[in-house]
Amino acid sequence: MFFNSMMDWLNQNGGLITNATLQTLYMVGVAGLVGFVVGTPLGVILHITKKGGLIENTKLNKTLGAIVNIGRSVPFIVLMVAIIPVTKLLVGTFIGTSAAIVPLTIGAIPFIARLIEGALIEVPTGLVEAAQSMGATPIQIITKVLLPEALPTIINSITITLVTLVSYSAMAGTVGGGGLGDVAIRYGFYRYDVAVMTATIVLLIIIVQIVQSVGDAIVRRVDHK
């Protein structure tokens, strides 16, 4: 009896849950990729332009730092509403999976920048000084010393960011952003369907666990300390 009920539920809701899961993975994947493409250089600039940095420029550092801090201080749910004009300009609408990627990406960039900056701070200054003494250029020091040495921490930062984006993507569902969050609100909460709500929660937990496990495995592989 229970098995038949379960099969009936899957026949009715399986397609909906599967599609929502794919939408969540799409949002997180694209926002994470674009976020790191922009956030990583920003984090590097924050690190090398600080006082005593590789290319010291305190004015630039303070300006970028202020922008990053502002971006990090805005709650994601508020950010989604605040940048609706930008979202409509870029994708033509502020509702749907593609539209949700815009605030997800904008929210991820300052978060990633600070994580990358923190990862680079952990690189021993002695390594940088040794590279400078051998005549290495700033670009060479960044690409051959800073980033490779900070790679395990950077990968850990990627993991943290992706897990955070999974949470953000669920929040995006509250304003029609699609994905598992949208299904949880429209079908689980509004229709008081406990089964759908439970299924979305379980899937979000599974996604987070997979991301964290893969990230930890990669860190162990690249960390030679």
TrEMBL record:
Membrane-spanning segments: 25-46, 66-84, 90-113, 150-170, 190-211
Bilayer topology annotation: Multi-pass membrane protein
A Pfam family matched in the record: BPD_transp_1
Places the protein is found: Cell membrane
UniProt KW NADP keyword: no
ABC transmembrane type-1 domain residues: 21-215
Gene3D superfamilies noted in UniProt: MetI-like
Record-stated family: Belongs to the binding-protein-dependent transport system permease family.
Protein name: D-methionine transport system permease protein MetI
Organism of derivation: Vibrio marisflavi CECT 7928
Name of the gene encoding the protein in the UniProt record: metI
